[in-house]
Write a structure and sequence with these properties.
alpha/beta, 4-stranded parallel sheet, 7-stranded mixed sheet, 13 helices, ATP-dependent 6-phosphofructokinase, binds adenosine-5'-triphosphate
Length: 366
């Protein structure tokens, strides 16, 4: 009887609960036992009552709740081999032989590291007398499956991540609210949105709200005089009769020298051009609240696929990551996706923005 553990890790994202619910219920209906591991890798490293067997009713009501009810954490000790040794020990002591991790690229990298180290970890646990040879033989293979839960939509090899669409909705609602006051007072607003090193939320919010200007990390302004050009564009929009100005700045926005573009700097430029300007940082409201129906559906379907991937896995299959491409659920090697995501960051660091866009999404980049 397979025992499947599930944890949520890294930044919370709306829809993670739907994923946990689907995993627990599909696991049970396929004759497996389901275990919730609380507080991300923290629960795996500490064990004890942070790992709990879950029944059908334990995930009742999960679909509509934002964040993650089984908790999440940034766990420094899991980055060390010693922490992963404890994690392996706790998995074995709970009889868990498959692990489904829902989190961002960091969490999924950690999951893959655990799996790649697994044989060595077992050897060390035997040497330290913490497990028997029989236990090591029984738990010779650890199955790991990744689900991408992140509002940033910054993972390669998938079109969308669990939580990104809800977050985009929150941002659009907030900008719509700001628009009322901007219109009334004929003001300019510079709005900072989340996304870390990914401009997806900022760009999609700009398109969805008809913003006047947007700054994203993947395509910094290249002109030496971009400040004047931006102000010229905004003036043109005003000359067409627009009574408000919205500029969206991704939190990871940079100029061509890789220096951050700060909302306060944009505010100063706009103020100097005679616009009554305010800065609004949307902050954590962007990641909170009820998941939208898309994220509930995506997380549910991907949760089902994650359990199926566990049941399909052989010792030789690389750990898969469940994604979605062109409306089809995908199951690709986790490490490939993590590696591509790393290459995007590297391309940006090398100022090769074109390559970053291509790696992120070749079609979108066109
Ligand atoms: P988000 O995109 O929302 O920030 P994330 O999963 O990328 O989510 P991280 O803080 O990067 O968030 O990672 C979450 C946890 O995953 C870390 O606290 C750590 O426990 C584990 N982790 C990350 N990278 C590694 C790694 N290279 N090796 C082992 N564990 C890791």
């Amino acid at each position: 009887r397979k025992r499947i553990g599930v944890l949520t890790s890294g930044g919370d994202s709306p829809g993670m609960n739907a994923a946990v619910r689907a995993i627990v219920r599909v696991a049970i209906s396929r004759g497996c036992d389901a275990y919730a591991i609380f507080e991300g890798y923290e629960g795996l490293v500490n064990g004890g009552d942070m790992i709990k067997k879950f029944g059908w009713a334990d995930v009742r009501g999960y679909l509509a709740i934002g964040g993650t009810l089984i908790g999440t954490a940034r766990c420094a000790s899991f980055r060390e081999r010693k922490g992963r040794l404890s994690a392996a020990y706790n998995l074995i002591k709970n009889g868990i032989d498959a692990l489904i991790v829902c989190g961002g690229d960091g969490s999924l990298t950690g999951a893959d590291v655990l799996r790649s180290e697994w044989p060595g970890l077992l050897e060390d646990l035997i040497k330290e007398g913490r497990i028997t040879i029989e236990e090591a033989t029984r738990f010779k293979h650890l199955t790991v499956v990744g689900l991408v839960g992140s509002i940033d939509n910054d993972m390669s090899s998938t079109d969308i991540t669990i939580g990104a669409v809800t977050s985009l909705h929150r941002i659009c609602e907030a900008i719509d609210s700001i628009s009322s006051t901007a219109l009334s007072h004929s003001r300019a607003f510079v709005i900072e949105v989340m996304g870390r090193h990914c401009g997806w939320l900022a760009l999609m919010a700009a398109v969805s709200t008809g913003a006047d200007f947007v700054f994203i990390p993947e395509r910094p302004p290249i002109s030496d005089d971009w400040e004047s050009e931006m102000c010229e564009t905004l003036k043109k929009h005003r000359d067409l009769g627009k009574r408000m100005t919205i500029v969206i700045v991704a939190e990871g926005a940079i100029d061509k020298n890789l220096d951050p573009i700060r909302p306060e700097y944009i505010k100063k430029l706009l103020t100097d051009h005679g616009l009554d300007t305010r800065v609004t940082t949307l902050g954590h409201t962007q990641r909170g609240g009820k998941p939208c129906s898309f994220d509930r559906n995506l997380a549910t379907i991907q949760g089902v696929e994650a359990v199926q991937a566990v049941l399909r896995a052989t010792p030789d299959t690389p750990s898969p990551m469940i994604g979605i491409r062109e409306n089809k659920i995908t199951c690709e090697p986790l490490m490939k996706a993590v590696e591509l995501t790393r290459q995007v960051a590297e391309a940006i660091a090398q100022k090769d923005f074109r390559r970053a866009m291509d790696l992120r999404d070749p079609e979108f980049s066109e």
